[in-house]
Model the fold of this input.
Amino acid sequence: MDAREMSLKYNLHSWSAQGKLNPIVVSKAEGIYFWDQDGKKYYDMSSQSVNSNLGHAHPKLVKAIQEQAAKIPFINPGIVIDVRAEAAKKIVELSGLEGAKVFFTNAGAEANENAIKMAKAYTGKWKIFSMYRSYHGSSAGAGMLTGEPRHFANEPGAPGFVKFEGPYAYRAPKACKFESEEAVTAYYLELLENQIKYEGPQQIAAIFMETVVGSNGILIPPKGYLPGVRALCDKYDILMVCDEVMAGWYRTGKCFAYQNFDVIPDLVTFAKGCTCGYIPLGGVIVCKRVAEYFNDHKMLCGLTYSGHPMGCALACTAIDVYQDEQIPENVAEVGELLGQLLESLKAKHPCIGEVRYIGLFSSIELVKDKKTREPIVSFNSDPEGIMPKVTGMLVKEGFYTYGHENMILVAPPLNIGKRELTEAIEILDKVLYSVDNML
Ligand code: PLP
Done:
């Protein structure tokens, strides 16, 4: 039995009907590429769910794992170990949250689970706001934060999770005729404030947001929106929580995406890029006032693997590598090229409605008609499997990424060069001609 057969027999694969799967079997991964068992090479254009920000098999990251494994591979969270303390110190310093502390988790969903609990404990309130078209994880609480069809399996779930419309100018209600970015911001902030009033600010513990919405199509907050949310949080005594699981770790050019938008949140959740996924690690950065609350109130959060030494050692090294290899500079430079290439694709392909990009975080919105903006597949409905066909064509050509609704995500490792990016986008260009012909 080969690996594919064995996997299909014994593994349940995420987010799929199991019967029709035909997964790739990978035999080697290095840098921005991986290879299947037949030796075919793929450009990893989504960094494995926007995770492997430093690419595959980075020697310094591999060495950090080996060294920690040889030293102390595990010790309980209540016992002090150098790498756990150092990782927290480095993360707090990068966050810009003066006097903050870190509670480590294993992954993004768990980070959000614990942020929900902390927000409820600190505020004594119980309602939690999050956006439609967001993804925050799929466990019981984080899945209720998630504002797209992947949360349906969690419903009815716990009470108190309220969804609001985040800014999305391209698909705003038809009556909206925005003349400026400021008008977009004002409209969506007004909607949010109304909803806060309707739901009762005295009941609302926190507003969760993906700082830049990731898997639902790289929705970048318009100018002034995040400071506006910050002001509403301050006005109504609500905690502002930025989910940086996907947008964090230099994906947008800054270590954390909120650093592009002139705001300081109260809680920050992170995972993925802090270890590039080589070892699972996530966490919550907790601002000073909330951290101090837990000085004399028991913090009812705990995990056997909280601050796992292997993950923390790796995070310490990854943080250094981001600096040593000038990743922020590379993201700025190659990200600019990415934007130009995407704009030129949009100009020539009738199937592209909009491209959105910040740093090396981007998405292409496919439409049937540029003018009407009708998406290539309706929301949560793709009975003919059009999007899997599109991503299937890309993968076949060696451009590995995934789609969501009518969008294709493009988010390569942050150490990609200009030449590699240009080559990969040439593949995308070729496939988009076939999509144009499908319309
Ligand atoms: N938050 C965001 C923004 C994400 O993109 C994800 C996963 O993609 C999560 C949370 C959940 O993280 P995990 O899958 O590590 O639990």
About this structure: The two ends are 41 Å apart (CA to CA).
